[in-house]
Fold this protein.
Amino acid sequence: MTHPRYAGYLFAYFTGEGTADGEQIRYALSRGNDPLHWRELNQGKPVLTSTTGEKGLRDPFVIRSPKGDRFYLIATDLRMYKNSSGSWDDVQRHGSKSIMIWESTDLVHWTDQRLVKVAPDNAGNTWAPEAYWDDSLGEYVDPGHTGSTYNKMLPSASRRSGTTPATR
């Protein structure tokens, strides 16, 4: 499939736990095809807000489907405004076991959010989810994460069952 000439970049972001709505998804659009200059959309207000789980959204990641017909936005399910989900130490060890997923065909209209548990009960720190399509495997993967660090990369339950998180 050939894609039309791209006119710019969409930046999905959150502003942090300093304000009540800082952990919700906002958009900015590049000024033309220049990824160094941006303008906030929706007057800088959130475009996606969480109504389930921890009710906070952090670390958004947008990916286009392999067919190019839709987008998926995945984000961390975590709210740290005034320690809503607990202390940083607590959530690193025991909290945030789920991610949020939305689907869209135009980056404007999104499906209802889905809370998807991807970590076992004894894990925490399910943060900054990313996904990449591997044509050779025909599935979404989390490539190249190896090492002996304390934090571990865990495949999602959907990957083990052969489905993608976005089509569950």
Summary: Residues 84 and 136 are 42 Å apart (CA to CA). Strands lie at 10-13, 26-31, 34-40, 57-64, 71-77, 98-104, 114-117, 132-134, 139-141. The chain has two helices and nine strands. The first strand starts at residue 10 and ends at 13.
